[in-house]
Design goal:
Layout (H helix, E strand, L loop, with lengths): L3 H10 L3 H16 L39 H28 L5 H27 L12 H8 L4 H29 L3 H31 L4 H13 L9 H6 L4 H10 L1
Helix pairs in contact: 1-2, 1-3, 2-4, 3-4, 4-7, 5-6, 6-7
Length: 265
Amino acid sequence: MPDFYRRVEAALLQQDATVKCKLTGLLRQSWEQGCDPGDSDTEILPIDDPGRPEKPELVDPRRLQRRGFACEAGRIRLLHAFAHIEFNAINIALDAVYRFRNMPRRFVADWLLVATEEARHFQLLATELETRGSYYGACQAHRGLWDMVCKTRDNPLHRMALVPRVMEARGLDVTPAMIAKFRQFDDAAAVEILEVIYRDEIGHVRIGNYWFHRLCEEQGLDAELTFRELIGLYMGGKLRGPFNRPARLEAGFRQAELEALEQDG
């Protein structure tokens, strides 16, 4: 069997979205069956650009086409934006497995679980786009999520702080309002998919929280102070609110920390 990390690398670099999802599922299946990565001699590539289809065209976020709920075209663009987030999230989870090789087996299991759930989310959205006469790649998108992955690729603590605890957690704040809007326009299919994603993403942020706090503890760092310092280092010191307190608490944030972040914002 090929080296485990070569297989993760192959999934990361795979450009075909359908094949990437299949490879991701096979990786998790292999891991659950007791795969041992052993002492890999596979070079860890920087991967400035993971594998993705030729489309969507990636542009500056300010150039993205207007999205809205009032017409079908606007709702398609919104679903496409979610699909792009979920596609990126597959690569983000795989990259954590690929890059941070000195972490415990539970870390690998956790992020392979996240990768397979993100792949399922992407497939749900891609299928729904096709049902509506569109497809993943039909609309423009941006690469903001992967930029943060690149910035944190040398430090697993920074990755856990900035990606699941900031970028994915932001999804917990905004998705309920999006669901409510789709429901307002009687778009039951979109509501059903986004509710699945929302429930799973709470678990993904919880995984990020667990590993962030564990790494802080292992390094003798105050988790709350360290997080605030990293927000200052990477994001100018502030997080956008308002925060979805119930979801963030369920995902492992602490009440006092949320209160402090709200005061900072």
